[in-house]
């Protein structure tokens, strides 16, 4: 197996043995990394939405919680930017859209990259993240309305 990080920041690897073992392909990150960034994104989402509660109950916590959420999102969205750029770079580098549009045969190398892209999308937890943020936003709005009605 060959693994390296290119100067453009793409992580490549090949699990092939034999004639293709020297070729390099992008790969998905390990599950613990994916789950770690998912948890960071959820933590940041909770932090920003719980600010409304702290504003009513303990205003001194608003600023520290805001910083925790902002710093968490800073790292989380940098990671998401990296993943997005990595996918787009792989599509561009292997000219996959043109090959698909022209009904061209995909090489083994192209198939490896398409496999990476599909696996990357499938392993991504961004849809769950969006759903959790949606639910937390609704709960934050409800909490603010309830706390305001009861004079907090």
Features:
152 residues, elongated, mainly alpha, 69% helix
SSE arrangement:
Elements lengths: L1 E4 L5 E4 L10 E2 L4 H27 L4 H32 L2 H6 L6 H16 L2 H24 L3
Characterise the protein shown here.
The protein has one domain. 69% of the residues lie in helices and 7% in strands. The chain has helices spanning 31-57, 62-93, 96-101, 108-123, 126-149; strands at 2-5, 11-14, 25-26. A 3-stranded antiparallel β-sheet has the order 1-2-3. The termini are far apart. Mean pLDDT is 87; it is low at 1-23.
Number of domains: 1
The side-by-side strand order for the widest beta sheet comes to 1-2-3
Query: Cα distance, first to last residue?
Result: 60 Å
- Overall form: elongated
How much β-strand is present in the residues? 5-15%
User: Stretches where pLDDT falls below 50 for ≥5 residues?
Assistant: 1-23
Mean pLDDT: 87
- SS-based class: mainly alpha
Radius of gyration: 21 Å
- Major β-sheet, in short? 3 strands, antiparallel
The gist of it:
By secondary structure, the chain is mainly alpha-helical. Helix content is 69%, strand content 7%.
């Amino acid at each position: 197996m060959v693994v390296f990080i290119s100067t453009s920041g793409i992580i490549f690897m090949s699990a092939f043995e034999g004639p293709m073992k020297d070729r390099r392909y992008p790969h998905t990150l390990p599950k613990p990394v994916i789950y770690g960034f998912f948890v960071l994104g959820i933590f940041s989402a909770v932090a920003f939405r719980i600010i409304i509660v702290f504003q009513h109950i303990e205003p001194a916590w608003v600023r520290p919680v805001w910083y925790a959420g902002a710093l968490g999102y800073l790292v989380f969205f940098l990671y998401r930017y990296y993943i997005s750029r990595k996918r787009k770079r792989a599509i561009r580098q292997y000219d996959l859209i043109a090959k698909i549009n022209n009904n061209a045969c995909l090489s083994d190398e192209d198939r490896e990259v398409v496999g990476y892209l599909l696996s990357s999308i499938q392993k991504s937890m961004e849809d769950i993240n969006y759903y959790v943020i949606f639910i937390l936003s609704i709960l934050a709005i409800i909490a603010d309305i309830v706390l305001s009605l009861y004079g907090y």
